[in-house]
Structure formats: C-alpha cells, structure tokens
Amino acid sequence: MRQLISAAIKMRKITFFIVALIMVFGLYSYFIIPKQEFPDLKAPAAMIYTVYPGASPEEVEKLVTGKIEEKIVEIDGYSYCNSYSNDNISIVIVRLDYGTDIDKAWNQLRQKMEDLQDELPDGCLDIQVNTNLVDTTGIILSITGENYTYDELVNYAEILKKEIRKINGVSRFEIVGKQEKEVVIEVEAEKLNFYKISLDDIVNIIKLQNTEIPSGKIEHEDSKINVKISNIFFSIDDIKNLIIGVSDKNGSVVRLKDLANVYIKTKDSNLRIKHNGQKAVLLAGYFKENENIVLVGKEVEKQIKEITKDFPDDVSVNQVLFQPKEVSKSVNNFILNLIEGMLFVIVVVFIGMGFRNAIVVSTAIPVSIISTFVVMHILGIKIHQISITGLIVALGMLVDNAIVISDSIQNKIDEGCEKFKACIDGVKEVAIPILTSTLTTIGAFLPLLLLNSIAGEYISSLPKIVMISLFSSYLVALFVTPTMAHTFFKRDSAKGRIIEFKKFFNGILYRGMRRKKVTILFTISILIMAVFIFRQIDLQFFPKSDKNIIYIDIKTERNLGISNTEAFTEKVIDILEKQPEIVNHTEVIGGGLPKFYDSIPITVNSPDIAQIMVRLNLKKSDRFKNNFQIVDYLQEIFDSELTGGTATVKQLELGEPIGAPIRVRLTGKDIEHLGQVSKKIRDILQDIKGTVNVKDDYSDKIYEFEIEVDYDRAYLYGITKYDIQKEISTALRGRKASVFRKRGKEYDIIVKSDIKAKEDLENLAIKSSFSGRKILLKEIADIRLKSEIPTINKYDLDFAVMVTSDVKPGFNSVDIQKELITRLKDIDLEGVEVAFDGEREKIRENFGSVGNSAVFAVLIIYAILMIQFKSFRQPLIILLTIPLSVVGSILGLYLFKQPFSFTALLGMVSLMGIVVNNAIVLIDYINSARKDGESVENACFKAANRRFRPIILSTATTIIGLTPLVFSGSNLFRPMAISLMFGLLVSTLLTLVIIPVVYSIVETEV
By the 8 A CB rule, do 452 and 422 touch? Predict the structure, then answer.
C-alpha cells in the first residue's frame, strides 16, 4: 500500500489524469442511466378471472372459485389468496411468499389453470390469468372535443398512436374508451312462442350462415386461383332478411325481422371517459424496461406537438399523466438537494480548515459521487429518489476519510516533517482507523440489503449506493488526497475557527474525568429519558405520497346500470369544480384509469364503479397545507352531500402499499354471521375518534328471482336443465352468435329477447333438445323472489369479510387499533377468527426485520473492531456510541414532530456504522499515546485534543449534508434525515466526553 501511495504522489500527473477520466465516464454514465421516480417492485401476486354466464354467486363459488383455490394452494411459494364470487364472475388473487421464484410459480399457475379448464362447468369461459399487476403506464393523454363523437376522437387517437409507437424506447400504446358497438337481435318472446324455433336455434342459424371456411384453389396447368364464397351479411338488412324457418305446409318462410328488432348499439360494458367534464378517450403509453424515459419522453412530446398541428382547433390533446416530466422534476429536485448538500459541506470544510486544506478535502466529494455513477451504470442501478437519497445520506461522510488523512498530513508538516514523507507517514498513521471506520459503516448498511420484504426491496438501492460511494471515498482519500496534499499543503496552514469550541469541550471533559460516577449516572439518565420520549412519538410504516395527485373511487348501488354511476359521478365533479386548488380531473366511469401509479390496485370493470384522478395545486392555497387536509375536507363534503353511492378520496401510497391503515379480517364458516359481526365492528370503529371511511366488503342480501324447476315434470316433456339454462341465459343476458364485418370493423352479433318482467319470463317457451316440443316455463317451474348475497368473499379458502378504516389527520392508526382491540372484548366473536392486517402489522413485521438486521450489523461492527484493536473490551466501549445516537434520533424526531417511520428506523440503523467512527479514531489515538508512555487519563485528554478537529468536522459535514433533505418537504425522507442528523450530533457531543471517561474506568494502567 505504501508503494502505491508513493507512486500516486510521484506520478501525480497520471493520478490526476485518471481522476479526470473517471469524472468524464461518471458524467456520461449519469446521462445514460435509466431514470425513474421510484424503484421498480416485483409484486408476487396474480389475478385469475373467470366468467361463468348465468351463474349465481353461490354457484360461481362452488363450481369455479372453489376449484381454482384448491389448485393454486399447490403452487410453489403460495402464501394466501383472496377470492370474490359474483354473479357470472369469479376473481381470485393469489399472493406468493416474498423471495419465491416468481417465473417458475406463474408457469405452474398457468399450467394448473389449463388443466383445470376441462373440470369447470359447460358454458364457463376460458380462465384468464394476469401475472403482471405492476405494469404501470408512463403516459396518459386525453383526446377531447365536445363537438365530436367518440368514434371521431378514437380516430385522432389512432393517428397519434400510429406515429408515437414508432419511437425507440416506447413499448406500446393502448386506446382506452373506445365505444365498441354490437348488432343486437332483440327477439319478441311472444312472437317466438308461435314458431317451432328457439333462441338457441336462431343463434345456431346465424352462426352457420355466417361461418367462413377456406374453400381452396382451382389449379389449371401453371395457374392457381383461390375460391372464396361471398359473405352472407353485407348490411343490417341482410341480417333482418335472414330466413330462420320454413313452413312444412305451404313453404312460406319466416325471416328474422318477422319476430325480432335488429339494430346496432354501443355495448353496455363500454367505459365512459371524461376530462374536465368533456367526453374524451385516453391514449395510454408504456415504456420499455431499462430506458432513460426522460430522453424518450422528450422525443414523444416533440412528436405529439408535430402531429397535433394538423388537428382541428377544437380537438384538445392534454397530458393527464406524463411520467418523463414527473421523473425529470423529481430527479432534478433531488439532484438539486445533492448539489446544495455538496455546497454546504464544502462551506463547512472551508470554515473548519484552511483554504488549501479545504480545497484538497472538498475534492473527495465530486470525485466519489461521480465515480459512484460509473459503478451504478455497471451494476444496472437506476437513478430515482431512493438511489439519489443514498448519495445525499453518504454525502457528508465522503469527506470524513479525507479530513482525517489531510489533518494527519498537516500535523506532520507542522511538526517539520518533509512534505513527501509527511504525506506517506500521515496516511500510514491513520490508514487502519479509516479502513476500520469505512468497513464498520459499510457493515451497518450491509444487513439492510438482506431485508426479505417488499419494503426492503423498495429501499435496497439506498444501502447499495452508500456502500459504493463510501468505498469510492476511501480510495480517493487513500490516493488522491495525499497527492493533492503534496501539491497544495504548506507548513502552519490555518487551523480553522474551532479552537474556542475545542477549549469549551476540553473543559467539559476535564470535569467529566474528575466526576466519573456523575458522568455515568448522567448517561444512564438520558437513556431512560429517551425511552419516555419515544413513547410520545407516533408510529408510521410509510407516509403517503406528497405528489400533487389524489384519486377518488366511486361505488354506486348495484344493478342500476352505468348511467346511474355516471349521474353520481357528475355530482362528485360538481363538488370538485368548486375547489380552486383543483387543476384538472379525469374520470373513468364503468372501471378505473390505466394504472397510473405503482401502489394503485388493479380495478375490474363494472357498471357500478368509477374512478377520478385529480391534480392539485396547493402552493397558492390558503386553506390547505398538504394533501391530508384537502383529502379530509373533500371526504367530509362527499359523506354529507352525496346519496345513492359512496365516493372515497384516497392518497397515493409510498413503499409497500397496504390500503386502509386499519384492516380487520374476519374469517369463518358462516358468511352471514361474519356480516353481522362486521357490522358491530364497524359501529365500534365509527365511535372511535379519528376514523373515517369506515366500511366493510360484506354485501347485504339483495332480492333476485329464483326459478324452481319441477324436473320430473320437465323430463316428461323431454326438457333438460341444460335446455332451460341455455334458453333463459340467452333471453336475459344475450348470447354471441357471430360477427358482422363492415368497412374493416367487426361487430358482435348478440341474440337476446325483449323480456322485461316476471310475467314475460314465465311465458317464455322452452324447446326440448330431444323432441323439439316447446313448453312455457311457467308449466314446469315457479319463479319466486329470493334474497341472496351478491358477492361471496373468501380468504385462504375460508369465508371472509374485511372491515377497513382510514385515519384523519392528527390521529394515529396504531392507537386507534389498540382501542379497537380493547373494545372487541365486549362483543361475541364465537365462530369468528379475527386477524389484523393493517399498518400496525406491517410495522411489526418490517420493523422486526430491520431490528434483526441491526443485531447482525452490531455483530459485524464488533468483529471488525475486535480485529483492529485485538481486544474484547475496547470494541464494547466504542459500541456505547450506538445507544447515545439513538437518544439523539429520538430527541430529533420528537422536537420536529416526525413519526417513527420505516425510514426513520433505517436512519437509526445506518447511524450505527457512522457514530462508531468517532470513537474508533479517538480510542486508536489513546492506545497510541499510551504506547508512547502516557498515563490513561493523559492519553484520553491528548486524544480528545488531537482528534477534536477531524471528529467535529466530519460530524458537521455529515449533518450539514443532510439539511437539504430536511427542508425538501419529503414525507418519506425527512424523518430519516432528522434521525441521522440528531443521532450523529448528540452522539458526537457525548462521545467526546463519555468515551474517554468509560475508557479510563475500564482500561487500567499498563
């Protein structure tokens, strides 16, 4: 090592050239590294969607959902599943254990579903498996024009889509909001009864008449000519004139128009989309992986401007979501925080050291950071808020090693040592301590890479970046710092402006050494005080996003159709448009927007739901300071003014999404009993202060017509259950018979009846598939009203009901849940298993995992210290700095009214490797002084005096480097920055006194 340092100094031109080369490659790497707002997360979950036409929820649960559940439990890594059985539809969401081989598990899932398909009832459609629940759109454009039809707006969207998808880096574009049409053949049931044909016959006739089968070719000598039979349907009139029956007596024909109305209409399943109250279609774009979407976005935006020049003035193309801009803004803000931190650190260095020394030390910052970008590019680490925060966290520490080495070199020069020798000997004197301090810091961050959870994956780039940048700073301090010191340092360089501060601390240390017992009692008392203060701090898993977007989920009464949902949504919009803080809003009726944020759950289209995305501008608002306040305000208005449905205002979640912070899951064997218990728990929650949006997913019974068939009587007429089910399903739900093609477009041909009332259904004639005889339904069945649960929910194969509640600003979910648990003792829970699955449980799960990592980190640090000091006792003395740092972190969180969140805990764990550095440098010098013959106390005084400047400077640089995070307003990183800053500050101040005192007690004279 000595030879390498010597070579670096002697060949300093080459050294400086290598540094310049690294800077160039680093800047290039920063330019091309993919950038995004937050890290990618691989959610180990999949959705299985199956349609069983005509089936009740109970039938769907028994014949479809139950069979799917029995299969998915066999998948490797299976954790649990949620299922929802509705009329005609089964939805099963399966979750895997974190760390499972996802690709292997999903291959098994698809294979099992393929094998299961044959076991499902006849008429059940193919099982649909969606394993990509995290695919998030990068661009959402709205195309609006009040004077244009939806079809015309779609045409403009198609023009945009055709050109933009050619751009390199764009994966695909999808048009959302197409108003698909269908040809409806509405058969008059009363007329149909006079003929021998059934609805099923009509379906089959249309299917057979409109089938296209390749006819082949006529080959003659050297020529081949294709043969094609012309289509039978060229227009709606062709369908109307289709012959569906011929009289046996006189040969007269019956055409479809004789007993049915044939017309084209838009499908009921179509989404209705509006942007700022105007009808619209959406163009949703997705980017390819590992692309710099900021650069791709600029090209997309340029292309959009070029294309829309040719659009009419009254057609507007608006950016509902444009991730490249969001990412650029987010990254730029954090880069600005990084630059601010760099400047603050450099200013501190210049204040604390002489001008020449400050130049040398400050060089370590840009060189270490830019070299980190090179490693990020090589390892495929993307630039986003978490990775840049890692750089900001490490920022102040990047000069620590350079400060210690430059201080050591300066002391040698001041003692009269020749400059080259001073550089070599100065590095040699502190090489082992700075190596140890670097390793202990890295050791503290290493266990954070082992967190086996989504939250751990979310923050995994932070410890990686800190470790990479610290190692880079170590190499810079070892080779670049002495090389620059040889060039710039002079004898008697200024010592900075901390001499008076040093005298003050020497006085405190003197008193502490004289009254050691009092010092120890003082230390114990502040540790006890910290415990009491900690109990006053709120607990939080992850904060809500401070992004200027909120969204509203709308749910209306069942079976009233999409028009009712649209009318309810209009009421919500009327309220929104009265709020000056709202910039724009986009609503999708009949479903949800394309997934525009990682934490938003997938929405299954249904006519009774809608979703609104709202953009805010609170900067000029006098009423609201943050999203919490406007969300609470809007929710109160919606709850008090709206009827006929619910509108739930939600904030975007950061980290691992959990939904409502209070979640009570009830499981058992009786779904109705679970519903009764859930109502009691709902009442309790509503009575607890601080709760809002208290609801459950139990669906109250609704009345439905049940057809009770007399099968003995039906069989006498040759009519089977299948005949009855098929005819009634076709009559009421409709059935696809074929496809009508016109002008390059396809329209499904749907056959249904005009039945509107119970009496009409009773008079529907059912045709026997054996004899061809037709019998009125009322002759073989009774139709009665029956109450039935419209949705059957299950959790891990048991019936389940989930009770949820949001929390108002100023209240804490953990405290509310504690009160709920106490009150649950007063209600009868027999036959019901109660489990909590909200924020408190996530805190326990993830904080416990971090706690285990902290223990592992302490063992790593102890092992490194033991190797350096070759002692069991001295590493324990150094580890005393860790509880001292916890005291500071708790005090900082309390004073700044910050919650003890996941990131705040990460800050505390990270401190373990940082705060020990001061004690390492201190004790290393004490040991050195004792070897030179000093007494224990004299050695302690001398070490505190000699190492005061590097310790204070390194602490000040680390703290000042974090200040931009504190004032950035980030709900995610502010608690972590405060935890780090105050923990380091308090620990350093106490270390300079307590560590020498404890050392003098533990270590005896040699």
Answer: no
Q: What is the pTM of this model?
A: 0.84
**Number of structural domains in the chain:** 5
Q: Is residue 270 part of a domain?
A: no
**How is residue 781 written in tokens?**
């069945």
Q: Residue 448 corresponds to which tokens in the numbers above?
A: 């954070």
Q: Are the beta carbons of 376 and 465 closer than 8 angstroms?
A: yes
Please tell me the distance from the alpha carbon of residue 817 to that of residue 829, in angstroms, as a whole number: 17
Q: Give me the residues paired with residue 48 across strands.
A: 92, 129
Q: pLDDT tens, 695-732?
A: 988 887 777 788 888 888 888 888 888 888 888 888 88
* 52, 60 Cβ separation under 8 angstroms: yes
| Joined tokens for residue 126 | 């193919």
For residue 462, count CB atoms less than 10 angstroms from its CB and return exposed for 0-12, middle for 13-18, buried for 19 or more: buried
Based on the domain organization, do 645 and 726 belong to the same domain? no
Containing 287, the helix (H) or strand (E) segment is: strand 278-287
Question: Hey, what are 230's tokens?
Answer: 């012309």
Contacts of 435 (CB under 8 A, 6+ apart): 474
Is the C-alpha dihedral spanning 12, 18, 23, 26 positive or negative?
A: negative
Contacting residues for 62 by C-beta, under 8 A, at least 6 apart: none
Say whether both 1004 and 964 belong to one domain.
yes
Q: Please determine, for residue 937, whether its predicted confidence score (pLDDT) is greater than 90.
A: no
CB 374 within 8 A of CB 27: no
Instruction: State which H helix or E strand residue 83 sits in.
Output: strand 78-86
Tell whether 111 is covered by a domain: yes
Rg (alpha carbons) of the chain, rounded to whole number: 36
**Which is it for the CA torsion 423, 426, 428, 432, positive or negative?**
negative
From the list 4, 26, 24, 8, the residue with the least C-alpha distance to 16 is 8
Question: Kind and range of the H or E element at 441?
Answer: helix 419-445
- Extended strands (E) in 697-819: 702-709, 735-742, 745-753, 765-767, 774-776, 781-788, 792-795, 798-807
- Region 308-327: what's the mean pLDDT? 90
Rounded-to-integer distance, Cα 42 and Cα 314, Å: 42
Residue 479 sits in a domain whose CATH number is 1.20.1640.10
In the DSSP assignment, the letter for residue 363 is T
- The domain that contains 575 carries what CATH number? 3.30.70.1430
Clarify whether residues 527 and 561 are in a common domain. no
318 with 275: CB under 8 angstroms? yes
CA distance 273 to 594: 12
Mean predicted confidence (pLDDT) in 324-347: 84
Mean per-residue pLDDT, 305-333: 89
CATH number assigned to the domain comprising residue 213: 3.30.2090.10
3 state SS of 855: helix
List residues bridging with 202 in a β-sheet: none
Residue 659: C-alpha distances to residues 461, 464, 936 (Å):
24, 29, 58
Confidence band for 494, pLDDT divided at 50, 70 and 90: very low
Can you spell out the DSSP letters for 41-54?
----EEEEEEE-TT
Helix runs in 499-653, H state only: 499-514, 516-534, 562-576, 627-641
Query: Between the CA of residue 556 and those of 565, 606, 608, 660, what are the distances in Å?
Result: 6, 10, 5, 20
| Residue percentage of the chain with pLDDT more than 70 | 97
Is 814 within a domain? no
Per the model's pLDDT, the better-predicted residue between 212 and 430 turns out to be 430
Q: Which amino acid is at 817?
A: Q
pLDDT bin (cut points 50, 70, 90) of residue 929 is confident
Residue range of the domain that includes 485: 1-32+353-494
Decide if pLDDT at 1 tops 70.
no
Q: Which tokens go with 941?
A: 């005084």
| DSSP letters spanning 904-921 | HHHHHHHHHHHHHHHHHH
953 shares a domain with 902: yes
Identify the pLDDT of residue 501: 62
User: Which pair of tokens denotes residue 996?
Assistant: 């020498």
Q: What is the pLDDT of residue 320?
A: 92
